[in-house]
Amino acid sequence: xxxxxxxxxxxxxxxxxxEVSKGxxxxxxxxxxxxxxxxxxxxxxxxxxxxxxxxxxxxNLTGKDLKLQCEESFLPSCLSxxxxxxxxxDGQTGEMVISYDPTKPSRSSMKIMLKGLGVPPSxxxxxxxxxxx
Length: 133
Fold this sequence. Notes:
Blueprint: E1 32-34, E2 37-39, E3 43-47, E4 52-60, E5 69-70, E6 79-84, E7 93-100, E8 109-115, E9 125-131
Parallel strand pairs: 3-9
Antiparallel strand pairs: 1-2, 2-4, 4-7, 5-8, 6-7, 8-9
């Protein structure tokens, strides 16, 4: 009912009808969730001693624009991390760019801890594996 200030009786009747549809299932394309982002994969592999760059695509579902970063204090010195683009709008995709520098010490298994996703570090880690060949 719609009421006016002048009368206690309804001035009009409004009827609304809506159709609710199921949201798109993106889990097949983006199978891994880490907080408010979904990723194509959660790990990268490098060959020990060979300089290389690996990329992981992600989609921002945080409800806000995201500047994806990692915990620099835990980042192994042989790795560097950046997001392309630097600011990913809500609902848009980006790439994590992980670079390996073989001139710096590495271990067979390392982790990159993403930050700002609202989940514990154990749930925000990207696995980095070093292969002999």
